[in-house]
Amino acid sequence: MGGCFSKPKPVELKIEVVLPEKERGKEELLAGGKGSPRAYQGNGTARHFHADERLPAPHPYPSAQDCVEAAVCHVKDLENGQMREVELGWGKVLLVKDNGEFHALGHKCPHYGAPLVKGVLSRGRVRCPWHGACFNISTGDLEDFPGLDSLHKFQVKIEKEKVYVRASKQALQLQRRTKVMAKCISPSAGHSSSTNVLIVGAGAAGLVCAETLRQEGFSDRIVLCTLDRHLPYDRPKLSKSLDAQPEQLALRPKEFFRAYGIEVLTEAQVVTVDVRNKKVVFKDGFKLEYSKLLLAPGSSPKTLSCKGKEVENVFTIRTPEDANRVVRLARGRNAVVVGAGFLGMEVAAYLTEKAHSVSVVELEETPFRRFLGERVGRALMKMFENNRVKFYMQTEVSELRAQEGKLKEVVLKSSKVVRADVCVVGIGAVPATGFLRQSSINLDSRGFIPVNKMMQTNVPGVFAAGDAVTFPLAWRNNRKVNIPHWQMAHAQGRVAAQNMLAQEAEINTVPYLWTAMFGKSLRYAGYGEGFDDVIIQGDLEELKFVAFYTKGDEVIAVASMNYDPIVSKVAEVLASGRAIRKREVETGDMSWLTGKGS
Description:
Number of helices: 11
Shape: globular
Helix content: 10-25%
CATH architecture of the largest domain: 3-Layer(bba) Sandwich
Strand content: 25-35%
Number of domains: 4
């Protein structure tokens, strides 16, 4: 077996930087073009590079001509708890005043480019207004997700009551900083049948686990395996922009995995896990021994079980290929979406500009009803109807009819017949854990993998994260929950990696998610399962509102549209451990929440 998790040996380090992105418009339309990466040497002690690896890169210590310095304001211009974007000529910087001290950081969230000045400053960190990522203002480090990269931190000095910021021109143009990472120095990498860490599943949880291990100085072998034919990609974007190509969706370029020795096995299906001998067997018979294992297999979409289910042109959306084929077939034709949850509604919204007609079939009486409640669901439904989407509610599909094998009509239980050339099924998903049934790893009655706060399963050395787990949600009295969201998968992957390294980390993030339809975003934070009331402030008709979900006397979740940064603000309050009472949100006076600072 490869070495265990002993003290990391001296490692070679390389930082990945990504070239500037074009100024971005609507966050929803971003297809994640990352620019081509370049590696360069990190600041700090001299790094050792192999001869064939020397990079014609900027010197680790930026020289005077690589830097720009400017007075950006007077010390009295900012109050404590205030943020301001300031211009340095080569780019903007986020200036923050907190507890009498000034900090200067990158001004855009590396995830989708949100302006952080519109975010929330609290407890020494700034939280993104769009999707809730958090950055430490003293270091620029990413502290909560989504996204993989941190912010650059710039030097600040005060002279004669003026605030000066000094920054390297390159850092100003790259709105992201990839943390320094170890490289793999295991001699067996790439060809032996044993690995130190094996990660099953290459979504957000698997990738963040691998990156965290490298960031923490771990230099042994890491193998990441995935059913997909692609390197890790931004799956939530699939249903929001079905035309996106795999290379636009990639979370990291191919060179990144090579540079840090993270081996990715694509189209690799694990069929059995033998925990006694610490070995997994793949479908093609290949066997791999491991010393630590992360299970992050995600979920499999549910399919229709009605008559005609084998008809052509009926899809679930799981891969870029699925999404691209749906758009091709829907152009100028009739599309039917089954299921009015997040995936179904995002797909329906995207197809309105492409298809001749879009119809949605749903069992409930309003879309998103279980998640967002009746009133918000109805307001969103109206927005869809104004965009020519036809709804068939409180019914389901009884038959799919074909002509020459291809879908022609969808027959509903209400006996309506809807014309359809393509059908997308978004009726939920089940954990993809069938391959664990014969192992001694515990699964619950629904097939989820129960873990503790450290993401450990019942088997020592075996961790699990992402959509396939249930875990104790700290701020809801450690209730065991399954939260199949992108941000949560990132956070769990990180905690699993930290505990593989015996750091005793616990999961304590506040769930945060978003959806985008017709260029409008809905943001959501908390865990609203079992809410018994919804308090709405603002204007539902105008889609400018905030909805508080309460259970008994407590606010357990919040959703908003066109009301930033309220959801990030509530997430910060919940993350600080403070409960929000129902009476605080009933009055409509939100000064307690929207006040500057913490």
